[in-house]
Amino acid sequence: MGHLKIHCDGCGSDWIVYHRDDFHDWKARTCPVCGKSIDPGTWDRQVLRAFGEMEDANLELMKDHTQSHGTLFTVGYVPDVIFPNKENTEAVDQLREEVEDLKDGIDNLRSIVEKLINGVFQI
Ligand SMILES: [Zn+2]
Q1: pLDDT at 8
Q2: Cα(34) to centroid(ligand 1), Å
Q3: What is the pLDDT of residues 25-59, one digit of tens each?
Q4: Percent of the chain at pLDDT exceeding 90
Q5: Could you tell me the distance, in angstroms and rounded to a whole number, from the CA of residue 44 to the centre of ligand 1?
Q6: The model's pTM
Q7: Of 54, 58, 56, 85, which Cα lies nearest the Cα of 72?
Q8: Predicted pLDDT of residue 94
Q9: Ligand 1 center to residue 106 CA distance, Å?
Q10: What's the domain count of the chain?
């Protein structure tokens, strides 16, 4: 038996709903950090159903393993989010600024070298 891991993009937290927990209680579908909740209809119709199907698949895989003494496989699910590195936006912006500063520095050096080559500056 597995457990259900939920990610809240609102605050960036993850929480786990274990089998010992009441899946139909509002707490199961509510972020313990920021208090935002998954829609109760979506929770019942989609999330719990998908979790149950995944549980059944893993039970079948376990049965295959014990009957054939072959390799045990388990399946999980990794969501493909639209912006997986969203939290790194600030770091990317900072790097972009640094690159722009480096470009400006290179342009300044280039103009100094050109002036030196053209004899504007006397050393
Ligand atoms: Zn949250």
Answers
A1: 94
A2: 4
A3: 999 999 999 999 999 999 999 999 999 999 999 99
A4: 57
A5: 19
A6: 0.62
A7: 58
A8: 86
A9: 44
A10: 2
In the reported structure, the alpha carbon of residue 30 is separated from the centroid of ligand 1 by a whole-number distance in angstroms of: 8
For ligand 1, the distance from its centroid to the CA atom of residue 116, given in whole angstroms, is 59
- Tell me the CA–centroid distance for residue 37 and ligand 1, in Å: 8
- 58 and 89 within one domain: no
* Ligand 1 centroid from CA 14, angstroms: 8
Domain shared by 42 and 92, yes or no: no
Residue 106 lies in a domain: yes
CB atoms within 10 A of CB 110: 10
Q: Which domain holds residue 47?
A: 3-68
Distance 53 CA to ligand 1 centre (A): 26
Q: What is the pLDDT at residue 74?
A: 94
In-domain check, residue 15: yes
Does residue 64 fall inside a structural domain? yes
Residues 63 and 95 in one domain: no
Instruction: Take residue 12 and report the two structure tokens written for it.
Output: 């960036």
Assigned domain for 78 exists = no
Per-residue pLDDT at 117 exceeds 90: no
- Specify whether 57 is located in the same domain as 87: no
CA of 75 relative to ligand 1 center, distance in Å: 26
Quick check: 33 and 11 in contact, CB under 8 A?
A: yes
The contacts of residue 7 (CB under 8 Å, 6+ apart) are: 13, 14, 79
